[in-house]
Amino acid sequence: MKQSITKNIFVSSLLLTGLLAIAGCAEMTSNSKEAAVERTRQQVQMLDTLYKTAVVLITEHYVKDPSILPAASASKALFAVMKKGGWHEVRLLGLTDLLFNAENKPSDAFEQAAAEKLLAGETGHEELIEKDGKRYLRVATGIPVVMKQCIMCHTTWEGEKGNIGALSYTVPVIE
After folding, report:
1. Residue pLDDT, tens place only, 49-74
2. Which one-letter DSSP state was computed for residue 162?
3. CATH of 34-172, one of 3.50.30, 3.40.50, 3.30.450, 3.30.110
């Protein structure tokens, strides 16, 4: 009888240890998934700084009148190269009532929700999605008018504050 009790305690201990290990693995998996999303957020922040700095520098140094290639057009060419290379997708969104290019209109529920939030003064909007078995982080960040050259093309925003546009990112989660 003593052996039976000892055996039951041993088996119960093994089962309990196994359950705790499974729970620990689930927590580690959950933590690693969140860490992957955080790494991807940091990458989006870096890309956002890079793209917005490029637009400002191009505008500041090269856009002297509205007939010159706007920085937005140059940026969209860069975005196309990144998408073609499979790195990520980024779209320029116009948030004003007057859009020069209809392709800049928010195109899906995520971008429409982002537009509402950015126009209401929020700094960004994000959503985690899964497509074809892969996770992606979608992030939208606002683009304010930051210099007088912006008003050359966006004349209706002279003296206005807030976001005139946005960048909408779809970036594979760095697993």
Report:
1. 999 888 888 877 777 766 666 777 88
2. S
3. 3.30.450
